[in-house]
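ok new one. same drill as before - structure tokens go in, u give me an amino acid for every spot. 379 of them this time. try not to just spam alanines like last time pls lmao
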């Protein structure tokens, strides 16, 4: 064990505690939500499929050809023929993939996704001797239910996390203890003198709920509630607080691709804000936000090139803008493929942080995700 003075020990304690907001805010990423720009879309052209099917309905007297089944068949024919109309050379399987991409592109569509995402974040700063690594593995099922006759969707997205942080789990013993008591207690002083290590386990759980119109492209919007539950298996893996706040989505999804016009881009943002209202009395209250913004060019019917980073804000942090806000930019690629009949989207993105506290800050992040698309069981 290093022999440090009480002042040095308290300095290292403050460093270790500064890592926790980084983890707490990054837990809410969702990278935070189902990525609204993870899959490109196509705009299905309108067809006369209803007119084509009408004679069949007129002459068929069986119960299978009732009005409701006719409407479903007409709608399905419109979507398939629309995808083929945009890309006449596409095979039927490719057209179906483009249709699924169109639904998955919308974070409040009726598509169900099982997102698995990993974020590898590199920490640097004046208080860190070498680069430290924070890893967050997330499982984010995205489940939607039609409401108001299917014109709107209610979306539920829990985020379950398994994290690995560069802190010893004994650092949790220092929470709620005054500096004088730490100095007076040899065992606590020992922990504060050398807080770095490795702790791995369950993190806090995020639950995002949104309600918005079921729209394939153009302007989309939604509002709802976001919550954080203190489910971390160790104190250093979470914030120890029950948190709640509003969430809002505003985006414009293009209807074209492969061109350098407005309709070949997806742009928008999802904002979430949390305040703590209960939890461990030894832990500080929270007042934080996460804003995922996205700017992606639609290279083809399913592929995107661009960025979908998350801005993290700790409103309670003292100091300048850099001390409160972690602002990243990025560059990544997203596409789709099939495993048998199962459509899957995937993506990879590198991100670099422009702002953050000088003492310890997120320097860079590598995000990788994969998301099978499954049938909506509530339709």
């Amino acid at each position: 064990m290093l022999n440090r003075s009480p002042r040095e020990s308290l300095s290292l304690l403050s460093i270790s505690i500064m890592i926790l907001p980084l983890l707490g805010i990054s837990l809410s990423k969702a990278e935070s939500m189902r990525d609204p720009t993870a899959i490109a879309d196509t705009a299905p052209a309108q067809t006369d499929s209803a007119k084509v099917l009408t004679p069949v309905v007129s002459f068929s007297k069986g119960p299978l050809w009732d009005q409701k089944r006719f409407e479903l068949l007409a709608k399905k024919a419109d979507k398939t023929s629309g995808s083929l109309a945009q890309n006449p050379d596409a095979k039927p399987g490719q057209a179906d993939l483009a249709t699924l991409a169109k639904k998955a592109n919308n974070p409040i569509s009726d598509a169900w996704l099982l997102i698995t995402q990993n974020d590898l974040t590199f920490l640097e700063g004046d208080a860190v001797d070498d680069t430290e690594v924070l890893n967050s593995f997330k499982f984010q099922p995205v489940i939607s239910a039609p409401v108001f006759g299917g014109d709107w969707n209610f979306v539920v997205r829990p985020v379950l996390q398994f994290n690995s942080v560069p802190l010893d789990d004994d650092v949790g013993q220092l929470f709620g203890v005054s500096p004088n008591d730490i100095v007076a207690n040899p065992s606590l002083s020992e922990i504060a003198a050398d807080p770095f290590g490795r702790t791995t386990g369950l993190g806090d759980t995020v639950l995002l709920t949104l309600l918005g119109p079921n729209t394939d492209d153009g302007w989309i919007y939604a509002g709802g509630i976001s919550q954080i539950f203190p489910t971390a298996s160790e104190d250093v893996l979470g914030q120890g607080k029950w948190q709640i706040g509003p969430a809002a989505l505003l985006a414009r999804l293009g209807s074209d691709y492969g061109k350098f016009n407005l309709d070949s881009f997806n742009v928008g943002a999802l904002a979430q804000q949390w305040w703590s209202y209960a939890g461990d009395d030894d832990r500080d209250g929270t007042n934080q936000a996460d804003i995922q913004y996205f700017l992606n060019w639609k290279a083809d019917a399913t592929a995107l090139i661009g960025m979908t980073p998350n801005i993290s804000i700790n409103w309670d942090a003292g100091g300048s803008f850099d001390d409160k806000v972690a602002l990243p930019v990025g560059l990544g690629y997203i596409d789709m493929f099939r495993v048998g009949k199962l459509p899957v989207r995937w993506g990879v993105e590198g991100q670099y942080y422009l702002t953050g506290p000088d003492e310890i800050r997120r320097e860079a992040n590598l995000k990788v995700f994969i998301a099978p698309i499954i049938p909506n069981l509530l339709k």
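The domain at 6-42+87-374 is CATH 2.40.160.40 (Porin). and btw The two ends are 61 Å apart (CA to CA).
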